[in-house]
Amino acid sequence: MSRSFRSRMLQRGVAAVEAAFLLIPLVILLLGIAELGRVFYQYNTIAKATRDGARYLSMMAPGTGHAAAKCLVVTGSPTCAGGSLVEGLAVSQVSICDATTCPATHANVPAEGNGVPVMNLVTVMVSGYSSPNFVPVRLPFFDFEPISATMRQP
């Protein structure tokens, strides 16, 4: 073998090692970005589902429709048909507060400036949800704070 051939092979080997050193952090960075995007998607889905549950209950009389609203938040269907909208979300993590379950805060609330003297409120809240992740390490932003939506009720 000539000296130039060995020199070229050595340079190729060095380039391969350098690429490996750069590729490892790049892959970790890309997986982290994908995981963060998935967490944002899950949060957004739960936030929209709580609004849907509150909207559903805003058309019901206080004290009615709680089971259907919980199913609507978890599965997207008031009959609990189908799987969970978000992996790991359960009906037990959904709580509902309205004029019958929380009368001190949600019954006969004074209205402000719209001509109606009092109104009832309904709040749908998802609490205790922790996003399942790819890596077995628990990071603080995978544990969501309670997500809630409040609307007026007849």
What are the main properties of this structure?
alpha+beta; 4-stranded antiparallel beta sheet; 4 strands; 14% strand; elongated
Provide a concise account of the structure shown:
This protein is of the alpha+beta class and 154 residues long.
Please provide a written account of the structure.
- Strand 2 and strand 3 (118-126) form a beta hairpin.
- This protein has helices spanning 3-58, 66-75, 103-106, and strands spanning 94-97, 109-110, 118-126, 147-153.
- The longest helix has 56 residues, at 3-58.
- The N and C termini lie far apart (90 Å).
- The chain has one domain.
- It is built from 3 helices and 4 strands; from the N terminus they run H-H-E-H-E-E-E.
- Helix 1 (3-58) runs antiparallel to helix 2.
- Strands 1, 2, 3 and 4 form a 4-stranded antiparallel sheet that branches.
- The chain is α+β, with helices and mostly antiparallel strands and 154 residues long.
- Rg calculated over all Cα atoms: 26 Å
Topology, number of strands: 4
Count of folded domains: 1
- What is the share of helical residues? 40-55%
* Oligomeric composition of the shown chains: single chain
Largest sheet: 4 strands, antiparallel
Shape: elongated
Provide a count of the helices.
Answer: 3
Unreliable parts: none
Overall mean confidence score, pLDDT: 86
| Proportion of beta-strand residues | 5-15%
End-to-end distance: 90 Å
By secondary-structure content and strand pairing, the structural class works out as: alpha+beta
Order of helices and strands: HHEHEEE
